[in-house]
Amino acid sequence: MSLPLPRRFLSLTLSLLLAACAGGPSTPQKSSSEAAGNLAGTRWHLPETRRATPTKPSTRLRQGSGPLAGFFTELAALERGERQEPLLVLQLGDSHTAGDRFSGRLRERLQAQFGASGRGALPPAVPFDYFRPQGVQITASPGWIISRAGAAKPEGLFGVSGFRARATKPGDRAMLTSTEEAGFDTLLLTVLRQPLGGTLELEIDGQRLPAISTAADTGPQVARLSIPVPQGSRQATLTARADGPTDLLAWGSLRQKPGVVLEAHGTVGATIKLLRRFDPATLAFELSDRRPDLILLAFGTNEGFQDGWTADAYSAEAAAALAELRRAAPGVDIAVIGPPDGNRLATSGCSPAATRQCLVPGQPVPPPPLVKPGARKPAAVCRWVIPGNLGMVRQTLSSLAAREKLFFWDWSQVMGPCGANAWSLQDPPLAGQDRVHYRPEGYARAADALYDQLMVDFAAWKASARAVAQR
Q1: What is the chain's mean pLDDT, rounded?
Q2: pTM for the complete prediction?
Q3: What residue ranges define each of the domains in the chain, with the CATH number in brackets?
Q4: Mean pLDDT, residues 91-115 taken together
Q5: How far from chain centre, in Å, is Cα 321?
Q6: N or C: which end of the chain has fewer CB within 10 A?
Q7: CA distances from 12 to 79, 115, 204, 217, 245 (A)
Q8: Which value, to the nearest 10 degrees, does the dihedral of the CA atoms of residues 310, 313, 315, 321 take?
Q9: Residue 346 — very low, low, confident or very high, per pLDDT cuts 50/70/90?
Q10: How far apart are CA 216 and CA 36, in angstroms?
């Protein structure tokens, strides 16, 4: 894809030159042999080159049939010991994804069965309150300014993380600490390169590595770095010199070994419109460079709570978002996750503790009791209900997946009608008092159900493939 002249990309030669010279005179220097050892194998990934990871095949294998045949082909190769590089599952979604409880449990199940290749990429710094990703601990100084693709009027380039963090003063720091026993052997960075771009100091387990310049003659442009570090590394620290605009779009940790990586990028309050907020060229570059083997789309809750959608309007929006994703990642299997059940109070002015009742669609609705102005509303008025559009959104996504021959999984089937209310009343509860979000045990139950379904379908696919091979 060609871009307008202001965003044409730098040559690979210039990029490698900058990578080699990034330390600068103000950086404390190690001996030349030590510095060279730290830089060995570091690669800039640039949109202009469209380079895939060398160990990846140039074309995707797809054995058998079905919406997940490509993913299952790679999963089977991993299971047989024939695939040597990590298999990447990429989940994009709303707050259910942002919390990394659902995706964290799914990651745990996949890695326990097929091998663990690390945590993968994360949004930059601390992108929102209560950011608690699984497998790592993230801290950041307060100077970083966070921009969101999901904002009302987003500005600048955004990739699949949906966030951008800019350092504002010298010494702004972000720290990633792996909580996995095996640590990591590769640090992933996605940065914005631009004229007069600033410099990031990098430390691995307290050892200073050559600094990383984000300066470029043209731009802005997104670039990715894969930085080999000692096997079993535990901690990466980025410190901004703030000698120019310094923007981080994503970072993460990886182990270069056979296994599964599941990256989860979620934005609180997001709808499926978020997919069209990403810069198309940046999205295409990131997906072609990382080459995910499966993309999970987990949207629908926020749309279901918005009363303004019609079925036709939502169908058109979802289809356009899916088309954008398919253009950016041709041939990649996509799984659509229908939203879980969610409930809200039927009448304003009721507290979540006012009632334990939820009205299932189809039940007769008793007439509401008369309430004097200013009087406390009785429980009969304060019922929980399922938002009217939630079922429409779920059915629209199901129909779209069927039409486009995609895998579809209905999260709400794990719960049943008014399931969010029922889960919140269990002891211990599986859902929060808001009847929208879930406790770790609730997310784990849902993720286990999806994993079980994937494994049932995987077994059926393998049986079919064996039958074909025996003919």
Answers
A1: 86
A2: 0.86
A3: 61-117+257-361+380-471 (3.40.50.1110), 120-256 (2.60.120.1360)
A4: 97
A5: 16
A6: C
A7: 36, 34, 26, 13, 22
A8: -140
A9: confident
A10: 22
